[in-house]
Amino acid sequence: MGAQLRVYKQKISSAQTTKKITKAMELIAASRIQKAMGRVRASSPFTRAVTRAVSAVATYSDVDHPLTREPEVVRRSAVVIFSSDRGLAGAFNSQVLRAGLEQAELLRREGREPVFYVVGRKAVGYFQFRRVATAAEWIGDTDTPHFSTAEGIADTLLEAFNLGGQDGGVDEIHLVYNRFVSMMTQTPETVRLLPLEVVDAGEGTAAETPVYPLYEFEPDPETVLDALLPVYIQSRVFNALLQSSAAKHAATQKAMKSASDNADKLITDYTRLRNNARQAEITQQIAEIVGGADALASGK
Question: Which residues form a coiled coil (predicted)?
Answer without folding.
Answer: 256-283
